[in-house]
Prior knowledge:
With 289 residues, the protein is mainly alpha-helical.
Amino acid sequence: MLIPKGLKTVRRASQLFGILYINLYFLVLFSKQIYMGPCKSICVPFMYCHACPSAVFSCPIGAVQHYAAIRQFPYFVLGHFALVGLLIGRTACGWLCPFGFLQDLMYRVKSRKIEIPRNSLIPFLCLLVLVVLLPFFTAQHWFSKLCPIGTLVAGIPWVSWNPVNPATGVPTIAEGAVGAMFYLKIAILVLLLAFFVVAKRPFCRFLCPLGFFSGFFNKVSIVKIKVGPGCTECDACKDNCPMGLTVREDPSSTDCIRCLECTQCQHVECSVFSSRENPSEAAASTISK
């Protein structure tokens, strides 16, 4: 599949669309309550807090926690994971996720940059312990209690605004409800925001349980990255990759967010279905013409 020269512009526009289409509940300014209509039963393919004042859809990780807390198997949510994964793998992380977009922007801030090693154990533990086991045994949504995305798009807006709920006649956030847990969430968010400036997508690489799960579908999804045999190992793919991957080593890596930045190298391409011609052959053919 040919990649447009304006790839970065297209991807930024897609990421902005991801922010827009989940935040369509403008009536919150009048209702002063979160949207609880039929769309809230639909999960987006990325992490975003359902308690955000303007959110229309639900967070898939929040949905898994909900079913774990009530001790029911999440058939619908896992079906959603499987469908999205088989179609696009982890592509939503690179093209739609608002928190991924924030990390991309903050990494552009001029500062000393650091390389961080890949680690799949921590997001696995987040998924297993905070998303499944603790909610199952305590009936509490532990990942949501600490989630920096929820803090940024739901916790801070509600605490700052704190409107009077017209249904109850009392403030949304009760007096004294903001305590140590809220300030712990703020501290986690601030530390991560600082980390975003010096390292490439640290939340995606170290903490995101959804990205960890979705990454396993990269090997079977119809969106694939291919590296031609003419690869010169110039590491242009690694330099452009927001996840710091050397694409030639594993084009189907579970960490790959399918952002296609690596396709700026002529030896790398994205193909929705397997093509007959590898990237190097295509480049040679174009040059010869």
